[in-house]
Amino acid sequence: MAETREERDGRVGDAGRVLGVTIGPEPGRRTGGVREDVPLTAAGSGDRFAIMYETFPIGYASFDANGRVRAINPAGAELLGESPGDLSGGDLVRLLTPGGRDAFLDHLREVLEAGRGGRATLDLDLDGGRAVRLISAPHEEDGERECLSTLLDVTEQRESLRRARESDALRQSVLDSLTAQIAVLDAEGRIVTVNRAWRRFADENGPDPHIAAGVGSDYFAVCKRASGQGAADGRAALDGIRAVIAGTLPAYSMEYPCPGRGRDCWFMLTATPLEGGARGAVVAHTDISRRRALEQQEHRRREVMAHSSRLHAVGILASSLVHELTQPLSAATFYIGAAVAMARENGSDEGLIEVLDGVDAQIRRAGDIVHRLREFMRRRETNLGVVQLDEVIGRALEFVHSLALDKKVQVEVDLRSKVRPVKADPVQIEQVLVNLLCNAIQAVDAGEGERRLVRVEVVERPEAAEVTVSDTGPGVPPERMERIFDVFETDKPGGMGMGLPISREIVEAHGGKLWAEPDAGGGATFRFNLPLDHEGSAP
Amino acid sequence: MTDMPTVFLVDDDGPTLRSLALMLNLAGYRVREYGSATDFLRAYSAGQPGCLVLDLRMPDMTGLELQKALRDKGCGIPIIFLSAFGDIPTSVQAIKAGAVDFLEKPISTNELLARIDEALTEDRLTREDAAEALEIRERAAQLTPRESEVMVLATKGLTNKEIARHLGISPRTVENHRARVMEKMQADNIADLCQMAAVCALSEPAPPPV
């Protein structure tokens, strides 16, 4: 007679308490539980193993060579989705898919052919998405061999495994979607996983000292192998990544030039610790060439702006200087006029009158400069006149005389060829000549040559007069030939680099050209031309 | 009242004023200098011959404002602006408002003297013209009405006969009037008379009888 439910529950409950687990039907769960309506086949035997056989959620079964069920416990039947009564003596095979059938039969064969102590495991997929694991061993009874199996519900495990694999795939696809080259290192610096970008970079660059081949390689060894320019970088990277793995650094990053790919290629290496238990680091290489190019552009732009605002300040300074100088110069002009008149009236000696005339001329000259400066700032048109170049050159030489003397540079002038007057603003042309002469003298001084010579020459060409200023200094490197005329371009520390651009602007405003030529002798040669005066008098 | 032309200087910069006055004095000019436009206006009476050398930027009243004030008073003294800091629009404005010159400091003494001479000459000529015009009008005021009519018609180019017909008198009478006109007006010939007529603005005689 079957037990009553209460009796059975009590007995099962007792067994459960011994084992320390709760056994009983849970709502909504079929696996692992015991069905209430399963009749017990070893009622009242008191045998503990019988109790376990009857009530525990582990399935036990015995199969013959053909896969027929000789015996099965309630849990086993439950796992297979049938009642023990239906299964006993029945065919397991019919419950399985064709693939599962073959696998099961192979499994049986394997078990039954194995000797004593042999064991085999098989995972079977059943209807409804459940998975069952059979762990089987052979047994002989009454001369007959049979397969004894434990049936375990591994659905959960399979599900976890599947989810883990899915999660891995998701993680890898996320890694692969990133443009940076990413490698995950373990605690010893071995590469555990890489993304697509990493693999592609390795393929494209072959034995690149900064990128190891792939999974399994020792990244630290790669860092150590870096040589030449990259040796220091490699060491720094190694130390940084090690520190991140050890936890002494929260993160590490380093910018380095990518070797052998042109001077404008830069990469950034970052290492962050691996989260979630295992020690390690995520290393990423990002191409920052563009960012660095923009940074440098920005830096240069800021420098130009600073320079330009300095120039602006200078412009304001110059403007206020002009303003401040005007009144005193004006008053001085009138005073000198008065002095000359007095001297003449009083019959003073010629010496005094000459001195006063001299002062008068210089003040007038200073006044001219103030006017020109003011006009330059207003950007008015130059005041053209008929200019004898040799006179202008003479005045310019006076101007730089003391500089040449000081630097022990000889200045030679060749005025042999007769040159007709040009149409020009004499003060501005003098400015150009002074600029070129100063540059030449300073260049000779900066160079280490034996000959310390600056030469000025004027020749007449069709329609123009051409002036040449050449020196025996180190010369202008070919790549700088055009750049020296750019505003701000200077190799003199503290210099403003304004001389040549302004000189060029002046010459071009006159309708001429100013340019630099490579000199066979090694020094620099600057030439400019000015249109000849045709009318014989300026407008 | 002195008839000698004076160079008036107005500039708020002391050294400029002193040095310029000194230089002009030694060069033989009569000079009066003022440190501000208001000082000058207080001291100057219209009709004084000469020219004005004027700074642009001054506190209180600027050069341009002084120029306008003089113009409003009907004062025609020639003005030379001598400025330490002038921009093109201002210079254009000054010239349009009637300035003779707009010069920038520092300027050479010779050039300034030349410009001052030009301005003084212009002033003299203007005054002479004005004085002459005044005298001509005074002479014209001495004409009898008939003589005045004859003068107008004669300077219009009408012959004696035509004038006689126009006025309804005999040609003989016209001839007499004409002689008297030439005498009173002190004209040498008809061309002279025409020029004087332009200055006089005599009224038109009545139209001839139909």
- Main sheet makeup of chain B: 5 strands, parallel
Q: Choose one word for the global shape of chain B.
A: elongated
**What share of the residues of chain B lie within helices?**
55-70%
What form of chain A results from the Cα inertia axes?
rod-shaped
β-sheet strand percentage of chain B: 5-15%
- Arithmetic mean pLDDT of chain A: 80
The biggest beta sheet of chain A, please? Answer: 5 strands, antiparallel
**How many alpha or pi helices of chain A?**
14
- Report the strand count of chain B: 5
Task: Name the biggest interface.
Answer: A-B, 26 and 20 residues
Short description:
Chain A is 45% helix and 20% strand.
Task: Give an overview in words.
The complex is a heterodimer of chains A (539) and B (210). Chain A is of the alpha+beta class. Chain A has helices at 5-19, 48-55, 74-80, 84-87, 98-113, 155-177, 196-205, 219-225, 230-246, 289-345, 350-378, 389-407, 426-446, 499-509, and strands at residues 59-63, 69-72, 120-125, 131-141, 144-153, 181-186, 191-194, 252-257, 266-273, 280-287, 385-387, 410-414, 422-424, 453-461, 464-471, 514-518, 524-531. Chain A has a five-stranded antiparallel β-sheet with strand order 2-1-5-4-3. In chain A, strands 7-6-10-9-8 form a five-stranded antiparallel β-sheet, with helices on both faces. In chain A, strands 12-14-15-17-16 form a five-stranded mixed β-sheet. The radius of gyration of chain A is 50 Å and the shape is rod-shaped. By secondary structure, chain B is an alpha/beta fold. Chain B is built from nine helices and five strands; from the N terminus they run βαβαβαβαβααααα. Chain B has a five-stranded parallel β-sheet, sandwiched between helices. The longest helix of chain B has 33 residues, at 109-141.
